[in-house]
Amino acid sequence: MLKNSSKTYSLLEPKDILSVYYTSLYSGDLSTVKELMTPESYMMTLETFGLRLSLRDPEFKSHLKVIGKDADALSEVEHKLSYDLISRKKSPVIEMKSVSWNGEERQTINYTEDGKIKKLYFSKEKDGWKINYYAGRKVA
Which of 7, 34, 63, 75 is most exposed, with the fewest beta carbons within 10 Å of its own? Predict the structure, then answer.
């Protein structure tokens, strides 16, 4: 369920955020997930994880399409998706493999999720490290 988080994660390093992200995501704590990500990456995450639910729920699908423009639709998507994530009862095993830098304020975490090789990109924002899918682009 979506919770109002008063916690701040601004002091965490990317390697620490990785664990908090997965724990929060699959416990339906989207307010924490939102705090750990850039706004663009958070919206992409809602769209990605909401796909399964949108195939079963036409109303959810219509809300998902407009989350960037409609605060009520965003709230509804977060609410329903939170319950859906909880119902998945997923608790993946996350194992960090390596950290690499991409410029001075970007990091890539290479890790496995239940044995599957993955990467997660981070950027240093004014309020700390954030998951940022766009930080994987090479810095010129």
Answer: 7
